[in-house]
Amino acid sequence: xxxxxxxxxxxxxxxxxxxxxxxxxxxxxxxxxxxxxxxxxxxxxxxxxxxxxxxxxxxxxxxxxxxxxxxxxxxxxxxxxxxxxxxxxxxxxxxxxxxxxxxxxxxxxxxxxxxxxxxxxxxxxxxxxxxxxxxxxxxxxxxxxxxxxxxxxxxxxxxxxxxxxxxxxxxxxxxxxxxxxxxxxxxxxxxxxxxxxxxxxxxxxxxxxxxxxxxxxxxxxxxxxxxxxxxxxxxxxxxxxxxxxxxxxxxxxxxxxxxxxxxxxxxxxxxxxxxxxxxxxxxxxxxxxxxxxxxxxxxxxxxxxxxxxxxxxxxxxxxxxxxxxxxxxxxxxxxxxxxxxxxxxxxxxxxxxxxxxxxxxx
Length: 362
Known about the structure:
The protein is an alpha+beta fold.
């Protein structure tokens, strides 16, 4: 069986293509290979490949997972997960082309009610530069509401049960109707006795105080890809919020990577920036200095006659590029330090320098 092609290759776009370029590429290819238009052998499979590539690359979170882990990063998505949120009618509007006709891809383009599941949650973690440089594991602490184990989510103390609210009959709402000038008006309000729950808890569960939920803290471990970019989202299936009803899967947890502040470097993509201070004498005469890296130190030469805010570029001394095999650069900005206080000898030397300097004609 042939190895599945890269999604960017399928759509014929660059890896840094923006949303518009991806949409335009998909639209052009889909019109060419849709099985209702193209009856050539293989058109159906080609169209399915195009639709799948677009479904992943058009969604920022799915795209980030694909960029981080390839096909394995999106292997857990069902067809509904991939295509459920895409409005194909909007993409192909104005072309007189029906993408809702029955056919082998009807299940991709027809909107279906999504199965009820828990909500997704998102947490942001600050990852140090060293971890981004080398890759590796980071702990993620998540606090989320979960069904109370003591009462099973009922809110009632163990051994007791909630009773149906007599005021609303378990509906959680009160409906009042009145007739005016031959028109019946209905007013619907939340039941004041049960607060809309439809049940009254006489003996609340002491663990959850009658809410049916408790906040639980969980520590998970995620693997940070080498060179992970700011905003990269790592998906952990089933660790989002629990569904309201038992037997329904929980949502997913998305861990968003942010680069932690670092006193040594400023990050811009895969490039690093650092400021070094050079004495005025070294700026004039030239000097060597040691500069820290994320994997050691390096000696650099300060050229004679260096001016304030000169930037030296050290190629390949930045961060690894995300998903690539190259490294960014390190840019060192040089600030010139002018002494505020001089010894007598230093003052005489500067005066001699001033006297020896060519004077500008006024």
